[in-house]
Write a structure and sequence with these properties.
Blueprint lengths: L8 E4 L11 H9 L2 E4 L2 H11 L5 E3 L5 H13 L4 E4 L12 H10 L3 E4 L4 H9 L6 E6 L4 H11 L5 E7 L3 H12 L4 E6 L7 E6 H10 L7 E6 L10 H12 L4 H12 L3 H14 L3
Parallel strand pairs: 1-4, 1-5, 2-3, 2-4, 6-7
Antiparallel strand pairs: 7-10, 8-9, 8-10
Helix pairs in contact: 3-4, 6-7, 7-8, 9-10, 9-11, 10-11
The structure holds S-adenosylmethionine (SAM).
């Protein structure tokens, strides 16, 4: 238990685009805090002045997090209340802050959440895909080989997958997901959520990858990809099934290819059938 004279750290979620999403409590906590630790003080300074909040700002980012922790702990120990924000959304969710929170936990200093916007949860809430279980992957590796390896490892996960992506990498990531999970896996790309150009694209991975290749707008701005989980549970290697189907479909009519692939892999017929139809639709070179 900490002494009652110690301050608290408030982890405050801020808008992911629409300033009106700053909650009244978040605004009050930011106003009352003795100082605000922010990922980018210039960005947060602009946001705070637009929101009518004046505060002392302390920069806390990946590269100085270790040094700033001792200073922030000293201020908290002396009774100051500190707020932590990131550039957008919920701090620590693919954003800095973890080391600070781990240090506070170690020091027995109270951390209190002020919940609010988070792009992953916002995207999941409109994707129309199962939400009872989901896996948040943050940013997939930017290098293609590492990304493919990570996706292969996730191919049989039955949970809905949520990941962050930069616009310029959208097409590559969707293609790699289609290769690892099969082109028929349902998915959603949620772009520029809560902003002027908010667009939600629903489809299957093969279709969404093809759309991203043709539609420059789709690759602009901030994006969340939500992909449905593996439906079979008993299908060990979706990529293997897809590869097998490609060979069979080059020699046989669809019905026969599906029959053989189902028998050879033990996967469910309807899943193999859907994958075969999608392969036919989007080409399988
Ligand atoms: N902490 C933030 C949160 O709670 O959502 C995420 C920070 S992470 C550095 C930034 C990524 O979040 C972006 O590359 C994008 O994938 C996603 N993101 C942030 N704002 C978004 C928005 N308005 N629409 C869609 N995705 C967004």
């Amino acid at each position: 238990m900490g002494s009652h004279s110690r301050g608290s750290l408030f982890v405050v979620a801020t808008p992911i685009g629409n300033l009106a999403d700053l909650s009244p409590r978040a605004k009050q906590v930011l106003t009352d805090a003795d100082c605000i630790a922010a990922e980018d003080t210039r960005h947060t300074g602009r946001f705070l002045s637009r929101s009518g909040v004046r505060a002392e700002l302390i920069s806390l980012h990946e590269h100085n997090e270790a040094e700033r922790i001792a200073m922030l702990i000293a201020r908290l120990e002396s009774g100051a209340d500190v707020a932590l924000v990131s550039d957008a959304g919920t701090p620590l969710i693919s954003d800095p802050g973890y080391r600070l929170l781990a240090a506070l936990r170690e020091a027995g200093i109270r951390a209190s959440p002020v919940p609010g916007p988070c792009a992953a949860i916002a995207a999941l809430s409109v994707a129309g895909l199962p939400t009872d279980r989901f896996a948040f992957e943050g940013f997939l590796p930017s290098r293609r080989a590492a990304r493919r390896a990570r996706l292969e490892a996730l191919a049989t996960d039955s949970r809905t997958l949520v990941c962050y992506e930069a616009g310029r990498r959208l097409q590559g990531s969707l293609e790699d997901m289609a290769a690892a999970f099969g082109p028929a896996r349902p998915a959603t790309v949620a772009r520029e959520l809560t902003k002027l150009h908010e667009t939600i694209y629903h489809g299957v991975l093969g279709e969404l990858a093809a759309s991203a290749a043709q539609d420059a707008d789709m690759q602009r701005g901030e994006l969340v990809i939500v992909a449905g989980g593996c439906e079979t549970g008993d299908m060990p290697d979706y990529a293997g099934v897809t590869e097998m189907l490609k060979v069979l479909l080059s020699e046989l009519p669809l019905a026969q290819a599906v029959k053989l692939a189902t028998r050879l892999t033990g996967a469910r017929r309807n899943v193999v059938y859907r994958a075969a139809v999608e392969l036919g639709k989007w080409g399988h070179s």
